[in-house]
Amino acid sequence: MGFLRFLRRYNYPFKDETQNKACLVQYMQRRGFSKAEVFNGNDVVLPVLIVGAGPVGLVLSILLTKLGINCTVLERNKAFSKHPQAHFINNRSMEIFRKIEGLVEEIQRSQPPVDLWRKFVYCTSLSGSVLGSVDHIQPQDLAHVVSPVSVAHFSQYKLTMLLLKQLENLGFQTCASESSEGNKQSCEKKILMGHECVSIDTSNDFVTVTASSVNNGKRVEKNIHCNILVGTDGAGSTVRKLVGIDMRGEKDLQKLVSVHFLSKRLGKFLLKENPGMLFFIFNTEAIGVLVAHDLREGEFVLQIPFYPPQQTIEDFNPKACEKLISKLVGQEFGDVDVIDIKPWTMHAEVAESFTCCGNRILLAGDAAHRFPPAGGFGMNTGIQDAHNLAWKIASVIKGIAPTSMLNTYDMERRPISVFNTRLSLENYRAAMSVPATLGLDPTVANTVHKVIINGVGSILPSGLQRLALDGIFAIGRAQLSESVLNKSNPLGSSRLAKLKHIFEEGKSLQLQFPAEDLGFRYLQGAIMPESSDVESPSQVPTGRRRDYIPLAQPGCRLPHMFVRVNPLCEETVSTHDLVSGDKVEFVLIIAPVKESYHLARQAFKVAEERQVSLKVCVFWCTDSAERLDKGSKEALSPWKNYADVVEVSSTNSNWWEMCNMTNRGAILVRPDEHIAWRTISGLIEDPRAEMQRVFSAILGAHL
Prior knowledge:
The protein is an alpha/beta fold. Helix content is about 35%, strand content about 25%. It is built from 20 helices and 27 strands. One of its GO terms (biological process) is ubiquinone biosynthetic process.
């Protein structure tokens, strides 16, 4: 049955069918997966099972579904969290969201206006002295010159709700554990809530996940079979632990308590006095970071340092949190409503591998990497994991590529995760430079805590340990008194001057990293590296903001430029829109040059042989648009999957100049908008052989 489905599925309307026999051989060799296969009566093997219904798992399920791959999502929690958690969506993630119909527009409509969250504010209290502020939005960030979309400030739980709406529109159902039992035939396109992955078996040709849930008050287990299992189940990933993949990096950087609360009065106060995204508050009574998720709605999260076992989570009950909020605000607002209180630990770790068990089990998001929150790398890196992975899984399931192609997921994404870990660590240390300048070095506080736990303080009863810790911290906070921290006091004046220098030099916590956000590059994987790449020095994260410079090297994200696809159409789109989000399709970008047309025809032939969809985009400069009467129809006949594209540039450079190439060059773009291959000069002796070599390399035939 699977073989017949393959025949029907891949009988594309190509120019001729001379390569069908070769494709059947490829199928037998590659074991390409098709739709869910039924065996042993009612048991079903799902193409993809995703464990974890956070933003990463939901984005992956959307992207896979749009590419024609059915999947199911397991979530151990019975309901989705309303804790805001992540809130900053960077440029690249917003670009990916443009592939999901209406999502970007909904985020932009719902998020607070940028002027309400562009600043980080440093103060002694929200009603007291302002030590400094940093504006993290520069004019070019909103100009859409290097990207078709801007960054966003939008709480994770709100994003989750929008993603669930998208999945509902794609035919998904969200099912409680009680309603999902006894329904084995209709497991696809389901989000199964209250289902915990308790074991994984890879001894067969498929992966078997045992899911535990509570049904009518009784715990029950059921087996779910799949071809590919993806763990997107967060920092404490069960999938990662069950398959025995270890994390490497720095553990337990800091323990904190996260307090989610509402106060419309506080929101109105800050809207009037000093709007911002983050408020770093240092005074003699308390220290904390207030995240303003939405000032208009009065929704906040307070992050407080946490030192167990001397402190316990019971010390942060709602009443205690309300008092702490008042100390940090500097006045009482009668409408503070504490919603949720959660302890958490900051780590900087990356999984030893993102794939295992013959590429049948993969990790993405926090399951694969855990970052400090500085810079918002966690969720954004995970969303980009999903984007990298979706088209590769689809290629394998559809039989376009062998399972070995999934090796390239680890090859590409793990180095990016390691780099982002280092960058987030540098940014975290930059954040810590502010309290250190004020005489409150967090490393000293952590050392003191360790001495009390493991050193001489360990002989003291727990109550005395708590008193000692509180006393030492109170002495430290005394340095924040107005008598010390003022310009008349030599010590305070010196510290305030150093603080001003840190802010002006961009050495404090940064929000945006355009060079890394848009300019990250895969050096090996599903690409054709250039000879010069071997000698390229590895990037060293600085923790400082650097501007993005467009590059068109293999592994880079396709540069953005506004263009018109139809010369007669006034509507402009981004070059990113030339890449489809609804099918596994490569895009070859050329200029209207004889040799390039010949290359394109050979590329069409090779793509046809490999049953890969290819679109050719012919870029016409503004000054050559008058030759567009006939366009490229005759030059590319009999193939019809092409587009004549006219540049709409707001700068003096044209497309090829921006890419640092000549118009005799060519660029092959992957389905995830990253460049797979290019030729700078167009001097190719045998275009057909070159295209065969390129597609074999990209689709994993050489792995």
